[in-house]
Structures
1.
Amino acid sequence: MQNLSLSEIGLLILMFGLYLLPSLISFLRRNKNYPAIFLLNLTLGWTFLGWIAALIWSVTK
């Protein structure tokens, strides 16, 4: 296994943070549907439509 450089580790952290952005937004906004948004983001966030749906849901009341 090859060693990861510092920039590669930083990129992985950035990508992971972007992937979970809808969950973070709903958590910070204290959305009552946070658990459902987190599950949607976790399971379907890898699809573009699932991520967009979670993002829209996280910013609505």
Note: Helices lie at 6-19, 21-28, 34-44, 48-59.
2.
Amino acid sequence: MPLLVFAYIAFIGLGLPDPLPGTLWPVLRPDYGQPAAALGALLLAVSAGTMAASILAGRAIATLGTGGVLAGSVALTAMAALGAATAPPWPALVALALLSGLGAGAVDAAMNLFTSARFAPRHLNWLHACWGVGATLSPALATGLLAFGASWQAVYLTVGLMLAALALAFALTRARWGGPEKADGPRLSAVSVLRNRMARRQILAFFVYCGVEAGTGQWLATVLVETRGADPAMAGAATALFWAALTLGRVGLGFVVDRMGPDRLLRRAVLVAALASVGFAFAPPGFDLLAVGLLALALAPLYPTLMARTPARLGAAAAIHAVGFQVAAATLGAGLLPAILGLAPIALVPLLLAALAAALALLVRRIAA
């Protein structure tokens, strides 16, 4: 199987475990007697593991090679899912969430590093769209199994077996996963990469971008219901529209990124995103939903295209560490910035998102000048 095809399948598989904690929490929580807020402990454990593994991914790739990191990290996510399928005690379930995050962070960094060095930017957009496909299929799979009377443990078992098969496939093809870590030139330390101004700008861009993306996705329904008089069903549909447009935007813009040029696309898309966020903040009801859809389409190419340009912008030696730092910053931004937005009055959230989008526009336009 060509590695590009394998990469597409792998990105679908990598999206499978991410939604499971939230999707299964309503049926899982009664078995543990935990309050609703205890879901935060699982999500925090996943985020902590993802950040730690992303930061250390460069050293792991340099030591084990891309194939070794891919096989080992997917095996960790499989072990975490299979462990959860045994319905372990609550502290062990939290520890397994941490293990899942460690695997996810390492494989995310390794796959992004490999694909950004080997494939054109259009493939990065399509690959990240495939992650969205996996993240969409996972709740559907869980819902289907539960509807047929299966337990939540059976859902974890099914996903765990899928991930185990993917880990085995990575192990069998380990020798084929060459990577930028073997590029000519001196090997750079992680600290030296952080001294690079452009690397710091890119890391900050991923932090802010994921804050805008996750902040919009997490707070959209609440803003519509509590400040604009929308009913919950319509607000939920608007949130689904946002995530669907984000995935479809990566598919569609993947067809134009190489023709337009990645940096030109970045400059235009981030400007449209800033304008759309302002539109969401100030547009009257009805038009604000159009602004949300436009915002999702404009945000869609930013993450994969910035990632795709990392080896060319920083050099292959620096990219080994920079990609991991970018994934860690993205994880932190997606978790921290929406939480900070929640401290503000709900009516101010769209304005704060617009301010973040404007800051992102200034930052990305400097990067892609």
Note: The domain at 190-367 is CATH 1.20.1250.20 (Growth Hormone; Chain: A;).
